[in-house]
């Protein structure tokens, strides 16, 4: 899984990590996303100013902090959607009628973006396998096609917002390599493996003592 691009969590920049793991490269920085957020804020102010700029509603709007970013590094779904339009990609809510096929056969999709409160992460198909690429985890996790549907259902039950990624994702090295050499699931050590390992350690200790 070393070929898979995976950013570790920095501050609250999970939106940046989510986008970059989706695209499989360091395409966006916090500065890029902040610029998009500021542009969206300006558009919102301009629309509000088309009404009565002397109104209480407009005054309260100006006093509110940005709804598209905050000082911790969090960015809104609007920022993520705007960033992906550059790549010709759209996000469709998993629970919407437009995502009926994705709910029925999620394994036929190419990627999902998941959000709970202020954390974003990516589920992406690379080669012919699915991976949970989460900046809070030490490495990407292999997700079987059988488990994928159950996992998405579990995330929904836990309150996650899930979005289906529509459009053509850019080519990446990990996709090509995993088509040729699929990732193998991590083998959990059995009691026998642990016993053998313990015996080897004891032998090594005995040899060093002699």
UniProtKB/TrEMBL annotation:
EC number: 3.4.19.12
Subcellular location: Nucleus
Region (Disordered): 188-210
Gene Ontology biological process terms from the UniProt entry: negative regulation of TORC1 signaling; positive regulation of ERAD pathway; proteasome-mediated ubiquitin-dependent protein catabolic process; protein deubiquitination; protein quality control for misfolded or incompletely synthesized proteins
Record's catalysed reaction(s): Thiol-dependent hydrolysis of ester, thioester, amide, peptide and isopeptide bonds formed by the C-terminal Gly of ubiquitin (a 76-residue protein attached to proteins as an intracellular targeting signal)
Record-linked InterPro entries: Ataxin-3 (IPR033865), Josephin (IPR006155)
Protein name: ubiquitinyl hydrolase 1
Organism for this UniProt entry: Nematostella vectensis
